[in-house]
Amino acid sequence: MSLSRICCLQAHLRMASKTTANAVLLPRHRPTAQAGQALRTISSSSLVRDKQATATTAKPVQKQHDWNRAVSEAEKIVGYPTSFLSLRWLLSDEIANVALHLRKLVGSNHPLLKTAKILIYNGKNNMQAWGLIVLLISKAVGHAPSVPDLEQDKSAGVLHSQRALAEVTEMIRTSSLVHQGLVNLQPLANAGNELSGDSEMIFGNKIALLSGDYLLGNACLQLAGLKNQQLIELISSSVRDLAESNFVGDRDMQNNPLPSKPEPGTTRSSSDTLSDEDLGFGDLEDNTQPLNIKDVLGNPEKEWSLRHILSAGSLLGKSCQGALILAGQPEKLQKQAYLFGKHLSLAWQACIDMEPFGSPNLTPGGRFSLISAPVLFHLEHDPTLYEEIKKGRESVDNIDYAKIHGSVIKGPGVEKTRNLQKKHSLAAMAVLNELPPSDARTALQNIILAMQDL
Q: From which domain of life does this come (predicted)?
């Protein structure tokens, strides 16, 4: 290569490096303070309106609040990814054997496979964010000065015992979901008959029962290792609530829940939702006692709230409360943490309930929860739809889901559910607003805002 050619190439390289350096040094576009405030607050008028107003000052190419991004950024704040927090039990010989046995169920229609897919799939229906919430509220609140230095994970800003509690929460939640994969192979009239033709389903039931028990047993062992009597009583009461959730209201032969017959009365407006006192069920006074279910069934918001506090909100709320017990925080702040976890869980559930009704038509063979908030609110508006739901007493397979979906889409149920989700999001935000500013608090606020895109 000639000398002039080499000099020419060197000149081009110098120009390219200067252009790159200038691009790096250019200040990035920052949203205005007004837009930044809109990203971190929810107005009581409308969550959706806030996001639309913010979008006018932000780049339209990227969503402001993406669920996966919010969770990913939150995981960095507490130290490491929290999906299946404890690899000690995930990689143990017992769980490895369970995974091998699960392969034998491939090709069958056992619901345990669907449960496993939901647990592993890291998408917008991520079920493994519960431990993350516990760690974030732990870091956002902090701990008392009396906590020994050896107990602190100073790099992540949480206590080792709080991280162990987050693992316990994940394992209890997972064990509950796995146990729900059990299948009733015989109606009561045929109980005791030969089941040799259902060998795959019997095997799947054994795996669901034993693996769920294994996770729950390990959670109890790890909880006992924390050596805190108050915490053990609190988390044990959440396990009781999980069990009780399976006995609320009507069920079909497979234990799928059915909504209660709506109470006769005046239909409320879409903005008329019940207060915290109306939805207390006794847990505002002492949340270790069983919830009061008197006069709840048949009232759409009360029934929906009770079912999902028992099945989810109790565990998340009490885990957040337990994290503050370990941190030595005062009782008043512990109660606020419980309310935060409960409201966050209900807001999350309302988002999930709205998802099947986001399109005008139900996909062929599509299913949705018959105790979801849109269905319960619509039954209050149009009690005649309950005749269709009564067909599911023996099996929900007898129900025309497309008919129910079409009716709910045309009624006020979806809008009432949207208001319900907004109410619980605002309640969770109100608790966070009482905490000092921190990256953990901001991460929790971003997760609440990101729920609107689920």
A: Eukaryota
> Taking Cα atoms as reference points, which of 116, 155, 161 lies closest to residue 138?
161
Classify the phi-psi angles of 249: left when phi > 0, otherwise alpha if psi is within -120 to 50, otherwise beta: left
Structure tokens at 170: 């994940």
pTM assigned to the model: 0.78
Measured distance CA(298)–CA(376) in Å, rounded:
9
Nearest to 353 by CA among 416, 276, 435: 416
- Distance from CA of residue 297 to its chain's centroid? 23
Which residue, among 428, 445, 415, has the nearest Cα to 136 in the 3D structure?
Answer: 445
How many Cα atoms are found within 13 Å in the side-chain-facing hemisphere of 10?
6
Give me Rg for the CA atoms of the chain. 25
Torsion of CA 224, 226, 231, 234, to 10 degrees: -40
Q: Report the alpha-carbon distance of residue 400 to residue 389 in Å, rounded.
A: 8
CB 362 within 8 A of CB 356: yes
Structure-block tokens of residue 408? 């709910």
Q: Which two tokens stand for residue 349?
A: 């559930």
The model's pLDDT over 202-227, given as tens digits with 9 standing for 90+, comes to 877 888 888 889 889 989 999 999 99
Q: Facing residues of 159 across strands? A: 152
